[in-house]
């Protein structure tokens, strides 16, 4: 759009999937073996990325494994300065499936902070709440060093559970 905002809409997406083993979609809810067809629709709107406050809205709905799935997301990002940003997001998934226990909702909320020491070195943190997990709250911290074009070194810590290092290298920058 002329003001930098955007819309990304998929009027109709059609999917086919064959399950050869039962699919555990949530807790004790299983999708039986079989072939499934579903049709999904998506509407997305976002404000201009050039502003200090950026807001995005996402809605996807339609059939899903012989039932229905509605997904809604809202995310707001505030750039406090050229180096510091904060983002708050919420996602709601409402399942209506024709299987025992198939009517359920999953909520995922998140708060993210990013600080750029330079355009090559960024520290980020993410605190997330997820009603589908037994450990409903998690925290992740990562340091990203872009040491050359398309090549990064990540140092990632997931609070209480693990520490990882990821290295990427592009042969042709």
**Rg over CA atoms:** 20 Å
Shape-level CATH architecture: Beta Barrel
How many helices? 0
Tell me the CATH topology: Porin
What share of the residues lie within helices? under 10%
Characterize the biggest β-sheet.
11 strands, antiparallel
Order of helices and strands: EEEEEEEEEEEEE
Structural class: mainly beta
What is the total number of structural domains? Answer: 1
The CATH class = Mainly Beta
What does this protein look like?
The model has no long low-confidence stretch (mean pLDDT 93). It is built from no helices and 13 strands. Helix content is 0%, strand content 71%. It has strands at residues 6-7, 10-19, 23-26, 29-31, 34-46, 53-64, 67-79, 84-96, 103-118, 121-130, 137-148, 151-158, 162-167. It is mostly beta strands and 173 residues long. The strands form two sheets. Strands 1, 2, 5, 6, 7, 8, 9, 10, 11, 12 and 13 form an eleven-stranded antiparallel beta sheet that branches. The chain has a single domain (6-167), classed as Porin.
Describe the structure concisely:
Helices cover 0% and strands 71% of the residues. The protein is mainly β and 173 residues long. It has a single domain, classed as Porin (Beta Barrel).
Ordered list of secondary-structure elements with their pairings:
Blueprint: E1 6-7, E2 10-19, E3 23-26, E4 29-31, E5 34-46, E6 53-64, E7 67-79, E8 84-96, E9 103-118, E10 121-130, E11 137-148, E12 151-158, E13 162-167
Antiparallel strand pairs: 1-5, 2-5, 3-4, 5-6, 6-7, 7-8, 8-9, 9-10, 10-11, 11-12, 12-13
């Amino acid at each position: 759009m002329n003001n930098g905002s955007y819309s990304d809409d998929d009027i109709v997406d059609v999917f086919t999937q064959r399950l050869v083993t039962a699919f555990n979609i949530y807790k004790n809810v299983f999708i039986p073996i079989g072939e499934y067809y579903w049709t999904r629709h998506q509407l997305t709107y976002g404000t201009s990325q050039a502003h200090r406050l950026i807001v995005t809205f996402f809605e996807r709905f339609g059939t899903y494994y012989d039932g229905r799935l509605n997904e809604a997301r809202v995310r707001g990002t505030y750039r406090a300065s050229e180096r510091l940003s904060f983002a708050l997001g919420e996602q709601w998934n409402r399942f209506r499936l024709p299987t025992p226990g198939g009517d359920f909702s999953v909520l995922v909320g998140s708060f993210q902070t990013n600080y750029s020491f330079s355009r090559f070195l960024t520290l980020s943190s993410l605190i997330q709440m997820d009603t589908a997990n037994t450990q409903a709250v998690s925290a992740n911290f990562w340091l990203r060093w872009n040491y050359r074009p398309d090549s990064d070194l990540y140092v990632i810590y997931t609070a209480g559970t693990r520490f990882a290092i990821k290295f990427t290298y592009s042969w042709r920058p």
